[in-house]
């Protein structure tokens, strides 16, 4: 049996109308990719399949400094104990060769007095290397071999002390410790400044000791395909900032806003607000300078992915003057406020400057309308308060007054109040 045709033509049915309706472009959420630089400044990079491991042993000092504390302390303890045991064996052999360990030779000439066993030789080795003399064991001038071992142990002990103590000092005074007090705003913003779209971040220093010759560098890292077909997974593009003048040094006394003008040379020139959220770029910020107190060069790093860039926002001011002193409120360090910003790219804004004018006019109109609404609401509230007050006065006037009747009786006047 054939299916009965519908009275409504297929092209005017619901499926046909839906298929002919214009669809908006759907932007898929990008897959969460690994960050090249973490928010705390650590490099998210793993080195694998390194065949030439011996290169790390050629620079032992740097390798020891780069190790974690637990490995450094283990190496520190093992090195000293091993040197003490090695020279303890040397002292025991010297005593054995000279016959000092023979019980029958009590009153004879010894190389080292009171070295009768390996334990006493080990104690004497510790006393020699750490320059502690307890007065019981001492070297004599009768044995040249003992003098030679004494000189060697002193030289080796000085070298071990210099390397190990220097390693401990460098690990405690590393430059990244100073970078812990160099802070960056949690989010970056894009807004209009001087009629140009600008990418802005805020940096600050929590310590009173300054960073001398501070410089800020910005880089955009993204996956790029060259015209020849070459794919560069980590393409680093330098970004210029407004402070890129002369030596590019900053006077980082108070928190500063670092601004990058999105112009033709910027990698953000062709990105609109919607395209920025769907892109996989990462903006790296590098702050370098010399620590004023120690003279060590330090570096602080952070990065911003597309989700951490707020379009149409601006940082709130945090520096105020209070009784002749400038005060910085770090509780508002990362706070932003919405401002009128075109959603188009910087290229479209340069080609059509009227977009910026229309956006500013719309924001001004909306601001005026909001002010009018507030004023009208205030007037209505004041009128309501006035009417409610007049009604209360009218109601109070409508209340019947109290009438007093005086009735004389027996020469005494009694008062009866009737309401």
TrEMBL record:
Keywords, ordered alphabetically: Ion channel, Ion transport, Membrane, Phosphoprotein, Potassium, Potassium transport, Transmembrane, Transmembrane helix, Transport, Voltage-gated channel
Known catalytic reactions: K(+)(in) = K(+)(out)
Location of the region described as Disordered in the Swiss-Prot/TrEMBL record: 366-403
Compartments, record wording: Membrane
Membrane topology listed for this record: Multi-pass membrane protein
Stored SUPFAM superfamilies: E set domains, Voltage-gated potassium channels
Transmembrane segments: 71-94, 145-169
A Pfam family per the record: IRK_C
Domain of life: Eukaryota
Species name: Echeneis naucrates (Live sharksucker)
The keyword Membrane is annotated on this UniProt entry: yes
Predominant localisation class: membrane
Any single GO CC term annotated in Swiss-Prot or TrEMBL for this entry: monoatomic ion channel complex
InterPro entries: Ig_E-set, IRK_C, K_chnl_inward-rec_Kir, K_chnl_inward-rec_Kir6.1, K_chnl_inward-rec_Kir_cyto, Kir_TM
Site feature (Role in the control of polyamine-mediated channel gating and in the blocking by intracellular magnesium) residues: 161
Protein name from the UniProt record: ATP-sensitive inward rectifier potassium channel 8-like
Residue stretches making up the Potassium channel inwardly rectifying transmembrane domain: 37-174
GO biological process: nervous system development; potassium ion import across plasma membrane; regulation of monoatomic ion transmembrane transport
GO molecular function: ATP-activated inward rectifier potassium channel activity
């Amino acid at each position: 049996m054939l299916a009965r045709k519908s009275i409504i033509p297929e092209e005017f049915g619901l499926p046909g109308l839906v298929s002919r309706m214009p669809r908006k472009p759907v932007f898929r959420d990008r897959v969460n990719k690994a960050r090249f630089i973490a928010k705390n400044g650590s490099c998210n990079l793993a080195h694998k399949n390194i065949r030439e491991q011996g290169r790390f042993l050629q620079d032992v000092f740097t390798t020891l400094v780069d190790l974690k504390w637990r490995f450094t302390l283990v190496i520190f303890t093992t090195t000293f104990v091993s040197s003490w045991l090695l020279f303890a064996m040397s002292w025991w052999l010297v005593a054995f060769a000279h016959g000092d360990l023979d019980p029958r030779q009590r009153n004879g000439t010894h190389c080292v007095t009171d070295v009768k066993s390996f334990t006493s030789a080990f104690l004497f080795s510790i006393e020699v290397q750490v320059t502690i003399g307890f007065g019981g064991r001492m070297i004599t001038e009768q044995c040249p071999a003992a003098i030679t071992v004494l000189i060697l142990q002193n030289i080796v002990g000085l070298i071990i002390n210099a390397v190990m103590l220097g390693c401990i000092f460098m690990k405690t005074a590393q430059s990244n410790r100073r970078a812990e007090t160099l802070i960056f705003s949690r989010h970056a913003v894009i807004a209009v400044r001087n009629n140009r779209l600008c990418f802005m971040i805020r940096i600050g220093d929590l310590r009173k000791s300054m960073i001398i010759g501070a410089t800020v560098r910005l880089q955009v890292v993204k996956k790029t395909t060259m015209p020849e077909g070459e794919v560069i997974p980590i393409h680093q593009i330098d970004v210029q900032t407004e402070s890129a003048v002369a030596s590019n040094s900053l006077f980082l006394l108070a928190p500063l806003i670092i601004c990058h003008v999105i112009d033709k040379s910027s990698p953000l020139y062709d990105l609109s607000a919607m395209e920025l959220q769907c892109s996989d770029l990462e903006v790296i910020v590098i702050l370098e300078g010399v620590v004023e107190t120690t003279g060590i060069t330090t570096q602080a790093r952070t990065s911003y992915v597309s989700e951490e860039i707020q379009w149409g926002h601006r940082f709130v001011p945090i520096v105020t003057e209070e009784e002749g002193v400038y005060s910085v409120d770090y509780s508002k360090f990362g706070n932003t406020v919405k401002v009128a910003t075109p959603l188009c790219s910087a290229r479209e804004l340069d080609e059509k400057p009227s977009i910026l004018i229309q956006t500013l006019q719309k924001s001004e109109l909306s601001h005026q309308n909001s002010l009018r609404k507030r004023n009208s609401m205030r007037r209505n509230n004041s009128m309501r308060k006035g009417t409610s007050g007049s009604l209360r006065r009218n109601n109070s006037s409508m209340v019947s007054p109290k009438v007093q009747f005086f009735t004389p009786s027996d020469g005494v006047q009694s008062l009866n109040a009737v309401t």
